[in-house]
Specification:
By secondary structure, this protein is an alpha+beta fold. The chain has four helices and four strands. The longest helix has 22 residues.
Length: about 150
């Protein structure tokens, strides 16, 4: 009988110490809303062209070292070949890097951000390093080269 009382007391004590009641405090994590993206900057083609040239240099160096192109801008930043991923806030353009599955080629589409960018050109570059542009549609490898 004494063993049952001792076991019961231990069970109550353990449940009190571990907080098995419904009032158990839970760890709350505050989720902060990410700042709104700055897409109000009008497309700056010169800034986008400069970014494309830097990306081309970075990808060329990355390929020489790794025998493949970077799959994402993060790889170029981590290798210290780019200072940062090109941003819409800086250029007014969205950069979309699409590497091939074997990473032996890549395509980079540069699209004017925002709805008031109808006058801005769409840009394109691949592993050849040739920058191409179109006025009213997305640029491709068949678009005219930028001079």
């Amino acid at each position: 009988m004494a063993a049952v009382k001792t076991a019961l007391i231990l069970l109550v004590l353990v449940s009190v110490l571990t907080g098995c009641s419904n009032d158990t405090p839970t760890m709350k994590t505050e989720v902060k809303a990410s700042p709104p993206t700055a897409t109000s900057k009008p497309p700056d083609e010169n800034a986008a062209l400069d970014a494309l040239r830097k990306i081309n240099d970075a990808q060329s160096t990355y390929f020489k070292v790794n025998r493949r192109f970077a799959l994402a801008f993060d790889e170029l930043v981590e290798a210290r070949l780019l200072r940062s991923e090109p941003s819409t806030a800086e250029t007014g353009y969205e950069f979309k890097l699409r590497p091939a599955a074997d990473a032996q080629t890549f395509k980079l589409s540069v699209i004017p951000a925002g709805t008031s960018s109808t006058a801005a050109r769409y840009l394109f570059m691949d592993q050849t390093g040739v920058i191409r542009a179109e006025s009213e549609k997305e640029a491709t490898a068949d678009s005219p080269a930028v001079k």
